[in-house]
Amino acid sequence: PAPAPGFPLPTQHTQQAFDPASDFTSKWTRADARQIMAQSDSTVAPGANSMSPDVTMPEIPQDFPAMNDDVWVWDTWSLTDENANQISYKGWDVIFSLVADRHAGYGFDQRHWNARIGYFFRKTNADPAKDKWNYGGHLFLDNTSIGNTEWSGSTRLMQGNHVNVFYTATTFYDVAERNAGGGGIAPDAVIAKALGNIHADQNGVTFDGFQHTKLLEPDGKMYQTKAQNAGFAFRDPYTFVDPAHPGKTYMVFEGNTAAKRGDYQCKAEDLGYRPGEPHAESVTDVQNSGAYFQTANVGLAVADNKDLTKWSFLPPILSGNCVNDQTERPQIFIQNENGKNKYYLFTISHQFTYAAGMRGPDGVYGFVGDGIRSDYQPMNNSGLALGSPTDLNLPSESPEAPTPNQNGRQFQAYSHYVQPGGLVQSFIDNVNGVRGGSLSPTVKINFRNGVSQVDRNFGRNGLGPFGYLPTNVRVGGEGLY
Ligand code: FRU
User: Fold this and answer.
1) Ligand 1 centroid to 277 CA: how many Å?
2) Rounded Cα distance, 38 and 52, in Å
3) DSSP string of 34-88?
4) Are 86 and 471 a contacting pair, CB within 8 Å?
5) How far is CA 80 from CA 48, 138, 463, 474, in A?
6) Catalytic residues
7) Do residues 31 and 403 touch, judged by C-beta distance below 8 A?
8) Plot region of 236 (φ>0 → left; ψ -120 to 50 → alpha; else → beta)
9) How far is the CA of 112 from the centre of ligand 1 (A)?
10) Of 198, 405, 412, 434, which is most buried, counting CB atoms within 10 Å of its CB?
11) Spatial distance between the Cα atoms of 368 and 13, rounded to a whole number of angstroms
12) Ligand 1 centroid to 172 CA: how many Å?
């Protein structure tokens, strides 16, 4: 393809698969991520959406309903199997969400310091436009999880009625920080799991018997530790099996490249320019801009036993060094295209975590390759799959402090999760100044060959029902529904 005027060509990626245990890490490069601006319209009126409608989430109405009046709801995932199928259990759809008390006297932006995993259920054949999700309360009993807050993860139905909840156990040491929302002693983070039981009858769904096990702590060699950087990320486990490697269970998670904060040196391969590229930046200029502070990666681990209680790190499958600092809630979605399995890696990121010189929206980013470890091709050449409406010509901001002249929906949604059928769910953060804490209308993206497009024929002008997380596989219930 011809480059957009003034912009470089993206990096060439082969999509070639490598052994999951090998040390090839795919790079989401500056040349790749600069395609976001190459595809953005530099001539829109200030504050309009500058992105292509193909990658823009339709506008969420300002009068959105609250999913629950007692808890704020954000990162959400379904009960799944090891192949990312969403499971209806004995006639019930079950979802898990980070929740925080709406009445405890702290604000929406303090939710992270008070996060617990809650769950909701609703009849599998419910009308998603009318029937509300029933709130089941906290998943774990108070003071039983590892750590004092529970951050994102994933939940898998195992044999019989056993469930494994993979989650991030984040521990804050500074009570003032928990209440004020930041600035105090850095938290610890470990990846943990809890094995418990799901029960369902005509009244709904309950859980009990959770046994918690610590699984992984960052090693400081591949994955950055708190000692190396107080602002490190180590979280959001998602487990799956790979048909190309039967018998093994893998986990992807959010990490950072291991090094003491500030020590990372930007490399030519992080920039990814083709030889002779007229719009290339120099490694020195990028390094001098301070872009080395941004060192996101998507981590990979493999289970060492059938109980999934012992895991070993493998090298990261993707890095965004000198591009972005956070690749959150990663997931692997396998789709058959032309008789061949294509591996889509989806991950969410923010505008405020981009490195100097880079600009992109809050949203979900995607990468496609021939295996879980491959030379991933960023979707739509840039990586951006679905972003909140944003004028990318204006400087980046954060949801706590947006300016009035930006698009009022630049932070409308976050924590997108791609479900079977390209249905993308997320939570509402800030719609024109109205703070959310509830699930967004689900939208649909159609994707193939690494190219995606928002389906504006889905729902109403592209907006489906709020919190639409349908199931596609039924378990139990003896055919009663
Ligand atoms: C994404 C996220 C996750 C984390 C959670 C904490 O919205 O940052 O990475 O687990 O929120 O609230």
Assistant:
1) 37
2) 11
3) HHHHHTS-TTSPTTS--S-GGGBPPPPPTTPPPS-SSEEEEEEEEEE-TTSPBEE
4) yes
5) 38, 19, 24, 11
6) 75, 328
7) no
8) left
9) 7
10) 412
11) 10
12) 15
Ligand 1 atom with the smallest distance to the CA of 415 is 7
C-alpha of 469 from chain center: 16
| Substitution candidate for ligand 1 out of 72, 74, 75 with most atoms within 8 A of CB | 75
Amino acid (1-letter code) at residue 250: Y
Task: Judge whether residue 477 has pLDDT over 80.
Answer: no
Percent of the chain past pLDDT 90, that is, above it, reads 92
pTM: 0.97
Please name the residue whose Cα sits nearest to atom 8 of ligand 1: 328
Nearest Cα residue to 367 out of 348, 341, 388, 343 = 343
Q: Which stretches of 338-392 are assigned E, i.e. beta strand? A: 340-349, 363-369, 377-378, 384-387
How far is the centre of ligand 1, averaged over its atoms, from the C-alpha of 1 (Å)? 36
Token pair recorded at residue 18? 């490598």
Contacts of 152 (CB under 8 A, 6+ apart): 75, 77, 98, 167, 168, 235, 236, 328, 329, 415
Q: Indicate the DSSP class of residue 105.
A: S
Mutate to test the pocket of ligand 1, among 106, 149, 327, 329 (most ligand atoms within 8 A of CB): 329
Q: Which atom of ligand 1 is nearest to the CA of 236?
A: 10
Residue 102 CB partners (closer than 8 Å, separation 6+): 69, 70, 71, 72, 437
Q: State in Å: Cα 118 to ligand 1 middle.
A: 14
What pLDDT score does 183 carry? Answer: 61
Residues in the chain: 481
Q: How far apart are CA 104 and CA 107, in angstroms?
A: 9
List ligand 1's pocket residues with C-beta within 6 A. 75, 98, 112, 115, 151-152, 168, 235-236, 254, 328-329, 414-415
Q: In the chain, what is the greatest distance between 2 CA atoms, to the nearest angstrom?
A: 67
Structure confidence at residue 185 as a pLDDT band (50, 70, 90):
confident
Q: Tell me the three state secondary structure of residue 13.
A: coil
Nearest Cα residue to atom 7 of ligand 1:
415
Nearest-angstrom CA–CA distance, 400 and 365: 22
For the stretch 86-96, pLDDT in tens is 999 999 999 99
Amino acid at site 436 = G
**Residue whose CA lies nearest to ligand 1 atom number 9:** 328
Protein residue with least CA distance to atom 3, ligand 1: 152
**CA-CA distance, 179 to 182, in Å (whole number)?**
8
Q: Ligand 1 atom closest to Cα of 168?
A: 10
Contact in structure between 302 and 21 (CB atoms under 8 Å)? yes
